[in-house]
């Protein structure tokens, strides 16, 4: 199964010409490429699939989706490699 998981951008940086960020997924942090979401900045919520932010979402949608994903714990753990706290 493939999931797009929402997370909040915490830090931005440039790595070899790529816009990279540390993104928090409700307690799990991952490095994410932001090149497909040029408007995303610190505090933005993005939907991430296989390490790439693919769209921005508002905070309420991100929180609602994370709630649903917590209810589907096995799918989230498979996608992120660890469960959401």
Automatic annotation (TrEMBL):
Coiled coil: none
Top-level taxonomic group: Bacteria
Matching SUPFAM superfamilies: HupF/HypC-like
PROSITE patterns attached to this UniProt entry: HUPF_HYPC
Alphabetized InterPro entries for the sequence: Hydgase_assmbl_chp_CS, Hydrogenase_HupF/HypC
Pfam family, any one: HupF_HypC
Family that this chain belongs to: Belongs to the HupF/HypC family.
Protein's UniProt name: HypC/HybG/HupF family hydrogenase formation chaperone
Organism, as annotated: Streptomyces rochei
Phylogenetic lineage: Bacteria, Bacillati, Actinomycetota, Actinomycetes, Kitasatosporales
